[in-house]
Amino acid sequence: MAEQAPGVRIDGLTVVYKTPAGELPAVRDVTLTLEPGTITGIVGESGSGKSTLALSLLNAVQPPGRIAAGTVEIDGLGDMARFRGEQLRKARGKHVGYVFQAAQNSLNPLKTVGKQLLDLGRSHGVEDLRGLVREAKELLGRMGLDGARVLDSHQHELSGGMRQRVGIMLALVLNAHLVVLDEPTTALDMITQANILKIVRAVHAERGLTTLVITHDIGVVAEVADRLAVMYGGRLVEQGPTREVLGAPRHPYTKGLIKAIPRLVGDIAEAQALPGRPPTLATVPKEGCVFRERCALRMDVCDTVDPEAVSHGTRLVACHAVTVKEHA
């Protein structure tokens, strides 16, 4: 009997980094649920806190960063934010698979992929290493690669798309049912990107996974995600079913992201970049709305009161202007 995909409940998660100006939040008071068996996408500009949030699912935020508050409850495991040492090592890979942002950076350039696979198996106490190799070859074959050749190769002998598929294989080979993909299509050409997304969808369905996809590319989440969460300045500003969020965005930041996408047809001038720049750790406001400096709907209350995520039907939106409009 196949294991059931786990659900994940992130509640009140805050991640801070130690700086000369004190501890500053990269992720602040984030609450998000990953429903079992679904694909959730998190989208936002670079520096919005997406990767820090993803690393929190592995409790892998590196110093000078730390999880300062909140929980990351994973079905069948417990609160990953409280795991330490051996308990944490065993959970990574076996229960939670992670495909890193730059696939080549997660591979050892001095070892073949096969040797790294065996190291992974031994570190997790896998007794049937031949079975592990068979499983890896089967996974790679399903992704359109010659498994034997890939396992006998070093990272420099593989293309970017091949390395990304190796990363997916390593995340799944220990039978993890919760998988995090951090920018899975960055630096890939359009054809390879389309193939990777097709593979993500197929493997997700075949294995009954719970999947989190981190990206700055709205096109990627439109292609694969059931639900979409939009992140800005360390906060989740809007979340809901992907088609609804993209079809009728409510938060001004979500609208701005969609409006900035270049069109293949029609008036090219319709695509407009968001004014200003996203905040850095040092410039994220300590109070009020994180998006107010770039927002056309800014009100006085935005300067002092951080908007709560309010339910609007199937959607959660953290915006004073949207809440006022809904209740008008």
| Record field, number of beta strands | 12
Content-based structural category: alpha/beta
Regions with little confidence, pLDDT below 50 for 5+ residues: none
Strand order of the largest sheet: 6-7-8-3-9-10-12-11
Question: What profile does the largest beta sheet have?
Answer: 8 strands, mixed
Q: What share of residues are in beta strands? A: 15-25%
Q: What is the mean predicted local confidence, pLDDT?
A: 91
Which H/E pattern describes the elements? EEEHEEHEHHHHEHEHEEHHEEH
Number of helices: 11
End-to-end separation: 52 Å
* Rg calc: 20 Å
Which term fits the overall shape?
globular
Fraction of helical residues? 25-40%
Overview of the structural elements:
With 328 residues, the chain is of the alpha/beta class. The protein is 33% helix and 23% strand. The chain has helices at residues 50-56, 85-94, 113-123, 129-142, 147-151, 160-172, 190-207, 218-224, 242-247, 252-259, 320-327; strands at residues 8-19, 22-34, 39-43, 65-74, 78-79, 96-99, 178-182, 210-215, 227-232, 235-241, 310-312, 315-317. It has an eight-stranded mixed sheet with strand order 6-7-8-3-9-10-12-11, sandwiched between helices. Strands 2-1-4-5 form a four-stranded antiparallel sheet. Helix 3 (113-123) packs across helix 4 (129-142) and helix 6 runs parallel beside helix 7 (190-207). The relative contact order is 0.14.
